[in-house]
Amino acid sequence: MGRSVLVTGGNRGIGLAIARELAEAGHKVAVTHRGSGAPEGLFGVQADVTDTEQVDAAFKQVEEHQGPVEVLVSNAGITDDTLLMRMSEEQFTRVVDANLTGAYRVAKRASRGMLRAKWGRFVFISSVVGLSGQAGQVNYAASKAGLVGIARSLTRELGSRNITANVIAPGFIKTDMTDSLSDSQREAMVAQIPAGRYAEPAEVAAAVRFLASDEASYVNGAVLPVDGGLGMGH
Ligand code: NDP
Q1: What UniProt keywords apply to this chain's record, in alphabetical order (predicted)?
Q2: Could you give the number of structural domains in the chain?
Q3: Residues 21/31, Cβ–Cβ less than 8 Å
Q4: Residue 14 in 3-state DSSP?
């Protein structure tokens, strides 16, 4: 059955792979972008997840186009890495605002429609470093760990209404975000990954496709690693 899906940051990278996978599965898929326009074949709405009014306006457009959001994939995210000693408060709050408060904003807006429909799927794209930590990523890791708290609290609040809230914790995926790493950083990371390689965005998308499905109805409050074994299940 085709659901109304919204993927934040679905204009490129992992978000775009998720959007394409869900569209292929027969869902009606909308993506947010911040001015780049909609990718071919997908419905695009312009929204920055740090702005509540833009989020609300985007949801209204999606509702008009394909009905209330039934599957929300909160994927938009940024990094701004540096060691804590050098991290400004602005660097910390900017990353948390986009990655964590942004997820709160879209989840809150989506919850209305899901409650009315008595069905819903929240999928939050976290990261292996939200669970393991990473030097230079106090802001990013905190924001990604926070998504687990959001999902598990939502599971308790809404779990009796056929609404699930799960987290995917990707490891290292080939996108613009990881392109900025140096060759030596990349080699050092790959040496720690049992799979011995980075993942393709489509490998994350396949996990989202499952969590968004009717078949995943009893999977709730889970953190699903897609990391080639890097976190060993954590
Ligand atoms: P990219 O940098 O390739 O893409 C980031 C996406 O997020 C873009 O679509 C970007 O939009 C959007 N975005 C960023 N900030 C905002 C905002 N304030 N409002 C709306 N959209 C925003 O990253 P990836 O595809 O690699 O990452 C996607 C998600 O997966 C992120 O949450 C990331 O933390 C997570 N992740 C990535 C991993 C990796 O190895 N790549 C590993 C683990 C997790 P725009 O095009 O306008 O900039």
Answers
A1: Oxidoreductase
A2: 1
A3: no
A4: helix
Domain residues for 210?
Answer: 4-170+198-226
Ligand 1 centroid distance, CA of 8 (Å): 9
Question: Residue 140 catalytic?
Answer: yes
Does 45 map to a domain?
yes
209-218, pLDDT tens digit by residue? 999 999 999 9
Tokens in use for 28?
């009606």
Nearest CA to ligand 1 atom 23: 177
Per the CB < 8 A criterion, the answer to whether 32 and 59 are in contact is no
pLDDT tens, position by position, 17-62: 999 999 999 999 999 999 999 999 999 999 999 999 999 999 999 9
User: Is there a domain that residue 182 lies in?
Assistant: no
Measured in angstroms, how far is the CA atom of residue 160 from the centroid of ligand 1? 31
ipTM of the complex as predicted: 0.99
Distance (Å) from CA 153 to ligand 1 centroid: 24
